[in-house]
Amino acid sequence: MKSNKTVVKDFILLAFADLHQIKSLLIFVFLLTYITCIIGNFAIIILVRLEPSLHTVMYFFIRTFSILEIMFVTVSVPKLLANLIAADNVISFNACFTQMYVFISLGVTECYLLIVMAFDRYLAINNPLRYPAIMTPIFSMNLALLPWIIGFVMTLIPVIITARLEFCGSNMIDHFFCDLAPVQSLACSDPLISIIATSTATVFNAVVSCSTITGCYVHIIMTVSNIKSKEGRQKAFSTCSSHLIVTGLFYGSALIVYAKPMGSFYNKYLSFTYTVFTPMSNPFIYAFRNRDVRKALKNSRNYLRKPRSL
Q1: CA–CA distance from 47 to each of 36, 60, 119 (Å)?
Q2: Mean pLDDT (the chain, rounded)
């Protein structure tokens, strides 16, 4: 009779140990991207909160998305920096699976929040007259909350199954955070069920999110193409282009990593793309490609430069 005899109490995150020759450069790059990501997303949150012209449902979702991105990078990057700066590469068994659960839950939440944002644009462009009656404050708050519930509930199964595997051999995780694939590869027991659960969840989330977002934008493009005014078409597309770029960046790298759960040597480098680079890029994409945000930034600068009378 077999029992779950887990003897591994701690894991060691190898991170980018193979690039120790450029350790100082890595610290600079990761620290700079993390600070830029935090400042950029906080700027979007503050701007949307203070600028009256941005008090709309679309920017409410963008603000929620920025909050999610801050949490997303904070789950993994500080530990990576501690690893590189202070050689703090040890993480306990419980902390490892807690980090795994929160990180993947936030990733799944982002998938479904992108669906909500696409659905919002679909309603605004395809049903502009009914949009205010449908997208009420209560309904929009419920829509923003739903991805969080789905993300943190759906992730429980693959993480719990993986945590119940036997770990009695190597404790070296070839990654900069505790992710499913590199942890599954360390199991002494057969990880087949864990891999199947991970693949099933990945395929389900990918199919649902990609098909829904694609369907929304197919209808949007068909509607916008019928707009006679060139200015009207440009305005409609400008509100969607930023979301499409953000969606493409996130799914492009995430699907490559999670489509093959056991992973490969390059997965940790690809993971950096959607873990840090994409969240860092999002505020700039929304700022530079959205005329409303550019106008709000200009107004805020003019307000700060305006002399105050005593």
Answers
A1: 16, 11, 23
A2: 84
